[in-house]
Each structure stands twice: as C-alpha cells, then as structure tokens.
C-alpha cells in the first residue's frame, strides 16, 4: 500500500480526522463556533499521550515482546494523565479564557473521558499495529520472492549441465559413425548453446524462441536414431506473444528421448505441443524396456523432479503435471497458464 510511504501526511490526516470528529457534531447541532477553539486546546494533550504510546510503549514492549503488562500499565498511566490534565484545562484554563463549562456528574465525566481516550489512543494503536503487520508481510513477501528466484536459478543451473552431458555423449558417438552428422550436430549445439547463454537467465522468454530451441534439440536428437521417423513432433496452434519460463519443457522432452526403447516400433517417441491463448500443453510418450523401467533421473535428482519443483515455485497449484507409466510406455502431461 503506497499510502504507508507518506508517514507525515498520514499523521496529519489522522489528527485532522480526530479534530473534525469531535468538533463538527457540536457545530452542526448547536452552532457554537467556539467549540472548535476549545478542542484546539485539548489536541496537544492527546497528541503527547498518543505518541508516547505508539512511539515508545508499543515498539519497546509489544514489538519486542518484552513485557506486555508494562505496556498495559503504561497506557493506563497515559490515559489517567490525559484525563487529569483535561479536567484541569476544563475547570481552570477554559473559564480563564472566557469559554463556558458544562458540569456533569463525576461518573458521567469519567465515562466520557475514558471513552474519548480509548477511542483516540485505541485508533492510533490499531493503525500502528496494522502498519507494523503490513511491513512484516511485505518483508516476508520480498524474502520469499528472492528465495524463489534463488531456487529457480539453482534449478536452471542443474538443468543446463545435465542437458549438455547427454548432447555431448551423442556427438561423441556420432564422430566415429558419421562425421557429417557430427558436424551438423555441432552446428545445432552451437545454436542451442547461444540460446542457453542469452535467454536462459531471463525469468520469461517468448514462446516462439523456446519452441525454436526445442526444435533444434529434436533435430539433434534425431541424428542419434537410425530412422528420423522414430521421433514424431506435432504442434497445434501458433505462438503469438506468450511468455514462458526458459528451459521448462526441455527436461521432459529430453527424458523421453534419452529413456526410449530404440528397438520399439515407429514412432518410439511422440511429442505433442498444444498452444492456446491462455495455456500451453506438452504431452510426451515413449516406449521403454520392460526390464529397465524406472522414473527418469530418479538417481540424479534432476530432470522431471526439477520440473515439478519449478512448476510449484512458478505457478503454485495452478498447473498440471501428470506421469503415467506401465510396463512398456511412459507418458508425461504438463499444462501451464500463460
């Protein structure tokens, strides 16, 4: 709330409100303009009492949780002092200045004085506590935001080396099998590296850039298969101005490629992107060997586990992340808002 930034203005408005609250009803009911001058005499007494409570007692004994009893006792002393000073002004100073004085029974006088003090000091105390609570919440929100950014940075740094490790293994194998394919793979890898260096440090990137990066990776992945048709990629919808977290989808695609059964029927890996105005869906499906079926990257702590961590940090509970597996097939479905 920006209103809390203007502390002096807030205090001035508070005392204008208090003065108006106690003056206007008399002016409207009786038309005594002198009532305004009378209340001006009492305002300094209220100001002193209020600021002793909110600037000394509350910070020292409430915020620091030292001794709440001392705060109650101190506030009671302040209220008693205010009442005594106000009564002295009413019975001695007011007549000297020529203002009329309404004398009421002692019980009624004390009740009215207590009510007025509780109203003024209580309202000021409530504002002080609310402002303190808001400041704490703001600090906690900022700390949580920085923590989330730090954790996301760590997760991204885990994704990049993991991805590069697999790509370099593929290139190493291609060098001995087909030098031309290896050269093409290096060109694709340079494009991927450029993207990772330039874009992956941003919180959000354009979806079309992320898709171009994914397609470069898939082209690189196809070089490791005997038949390029083994990997099938389909995209529904066109990217417009959507923004997405960088490198969010690639671990899912990478795991589908890495852990597929290359002896399965075509296509062995199916990747579907569905782009809509308010969400993006990715579905991957790959065949796996029956005797070698486990959650991808379960031993390294990267891959799909990091994807789920990032989803929780980025979207809270506003996302879909499903994993379905059987003896031969592994399916992953992710849906995120944009």
Structure overview:
This protein has 338 residues and is α+β, with helices and mostly antiparallel strands. It has 8 helices and 7 strands. It has helices at residues 7-29, 34-63, 68-96, 106-177, 179-198, 207-222, 250-258, 304-315; strands at residues 205-206, 231-236, 243-244, 269-275, 279-287, 320-325, 329-337. The strands form 2 sheets. The protein has a 5-stranded mixed β-sheet, with helices on one face. Strands 1-3 form a two-stranded antiparallel ribbon. Helix 2 runs antiparallel to helix 3 (68-96). The longest helix is centred in the middle third of the chain and has 72 residues, at 106-177. The protein is rod-shaped and about 110 Å long. The protein starts with 6 loop residues before the first helix and ends with a strand.
Summarize this structure as a short list of keywords or feature phrases.
single chain; two-stranded antiparallel ribbon; 62% helix; alpha+beta; 338 residues
SSE layout:
Blueprint: H1 7-29, H2 34-63, H3 68-96, H4 106-177, H5 179-198, E1 205-206, H6 207-222, E2 231-236, E3 243-244, H7 250-258, E4 269-275, E5 279-287, H8 304-315, E6 320-325, E7 329-337
Parallel strand pairs: 2-4
Antiparallel strand pairs: 1-3, 4-5, 5-7, 6-7
Helix pairs in contact: 1-2, 2-3, 2-4, 4-5, 4-8, 5-6
């Amino acid at each position: 709330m920006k209103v809390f930034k203007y502390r002096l203005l807030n205090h001035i408005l508070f005392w204008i409100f208090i003065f108006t609250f106690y003056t206007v009803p008399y002016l409207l009911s009786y038309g005594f303009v002198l009532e305004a001058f009378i209340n001006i005499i009492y305002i300094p007494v209220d100001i002193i009492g209020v600021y002793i409570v909110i600037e000394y007692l509350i910070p020292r004994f409430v915020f620091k949780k030292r001794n709440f009893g001392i705060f109650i006792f101190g506030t009671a002393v302040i209220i008693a002092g205010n009442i005594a000073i106000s009564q002295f002004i009413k019975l001695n100073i007011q007549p000297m200045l020529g203002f009329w004085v309404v004398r009421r029974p002692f019980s009624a006088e004390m009740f009215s004085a207590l009510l007025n003090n509780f109203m003024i000091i209580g309202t000021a105390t409530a504002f002080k506590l609310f402002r303190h609570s808001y400041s704490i919440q703001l600090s906690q929100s900022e700390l949580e935001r920085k923590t989330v950014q730090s954790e996301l940075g760590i997760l991204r740094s885990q994704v990049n080396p993991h991805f590069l490790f697999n790509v370099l293994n593929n290139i190493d194998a291609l060098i001995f099998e087909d030098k031309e394919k290896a050269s093409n793979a290096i060109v694709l890898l340079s494009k991927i590296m450029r993207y990772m260096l330039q874009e992956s440090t941003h919180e959000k990137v354009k979806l079309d850039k992320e898709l171009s990066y994914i397609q470069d990776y898939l082209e690189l992945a196809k070089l490791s298969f005997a038949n390029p048709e083994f990997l099938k990629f389909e995209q529904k919808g066109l990217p417009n101005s959507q923004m997405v977290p960088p490198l969010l989808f690639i671990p899912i695609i990478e795991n589908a490629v890495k852990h597929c059964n290359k002896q399965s029927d075509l296509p062995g890996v199916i990747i579907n992107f569905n782009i809509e105005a308010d969400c993006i869906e990715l579905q991957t499906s790959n065949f796996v060997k029956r005797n070698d079926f486990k959650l991808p990257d379960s031993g390294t702590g990267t891959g799909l586990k990091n994807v789920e961590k990032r989803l929780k940090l980025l979207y809270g509970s506003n996302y879909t992340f499903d994993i379905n597996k059987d003896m031969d097939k592994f399916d992953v479905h992710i849906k995120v808002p944009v």
